[in-house]
Amino acid sequence: MAHRLFEGKEHAAAYWKYRISPSDHLIQQVLDFLEKQVGAVDVGCGSGQGTVLLANHFASVVGTDVSPAQLEEALEHAKRPNITYRQCVAEELPFDDSSVDLVTAMSAFHWFDRPRFLQEAHRVLKPHGCLALLNYSMDMELSCNDGCSHSLNQVCKEVLMACFGQE
């Protein structure tokens, strides 16, 4: 199963050491979409690099991951009191409806059951909240069950053009 590839302790330590983190500029672009910056959830957080970055901007940040070893590694680097971690799958987030300002998936979305995760993110996001799918690759296609896939992918391409001058 793909979502079980990163569970070993050695891999989690290497993930923390070598995984590329989003730039401050990219994080700031995500933050600019938000009216409030109270609570964030970093889904598929791995060893916690993105969770740590978000902690500078939110009162509370929760990193979630399926892997106990990744979360153990993340806890070793969580030096701020506003960071917590929870073990769960991305498609079943342990948060109330409309309770989160920002949901991120940093280099993890490709591992998820995408339609189920998108529904779950929609459920937990507050009105006017933000879902940020950050990835190394710019050619990721999104799909939705309600027929809006083309529109969603068109918006993503427009954002890429506006931000980076590329498709």
UniProtKB/TrEMBL annotation:
Organism of origin: Myripristis murdjan
Domain Methyltransferase type: 41-132
Protein's UniProt name: Zgc:162780
One GO molecular-function entry: S-adenosylmethionine-dependent methyltransferase activity
InterPro entries in alphabetical order: Diverse_substrate_MTase, Methyltransf_11, SAM-dependent_MTases_sf
